[in-house]
Hints:
Blueprint: H1 6-9, H2 12-35, H3 37-62, H4 67-111, H5 115-123, H6 127-140, H7 142-178
Helix pairs in contact: 3-4, 4-6
Amino acid sequence: METTPRLLQAGPFRFGFIMATGVLLALALGFAIASLAQALTLIFLALFVSLGLRPIVARLERRGVSRVVALLIVMVGFLALVALLVWLVVPVVVDELGKLIAYLPAGLDQIEDQDWFISLNESFGGTLTGFVELLQETLADPTFWLTVGGCVAGRARDRQRRVLGDLRRRLDPVLRRRA
């Protein structure tokens, strides 16, 4: 009695083809999940926030407030809390980024004199010195920082438009029913 699996009995070409197809399907699934990672993160964040705020809406409803008004109260309160956190955090982040940008040129000048960098640079055949010089030139170039700032501002503007558009799409049917 032969114990060879049926898949292997069909021949090595078929076995290899089926295995390669399986690998390609796994890669396609991985790429699909990776491309949806941002959307899935936003969905889970929205689910987390909605589950956390639902008891507050239910409590307001038990006190006689209509569901729409309760939702609006909770939404305004949540957005005010987020705005407060942004108002408190953004100045600190901007200040720290300013300190980092001011420190980088001097810090990169000093890095070449440190023992760990010297030994690492020798083990890489002196290529790290060229990398540090390129990094110094790039960080000292104002157009680099304008490009980075423009990209960040553009992404923030796009995200704001998506959020406001989504909010409008969700609130329009509710507000039309009330009218």
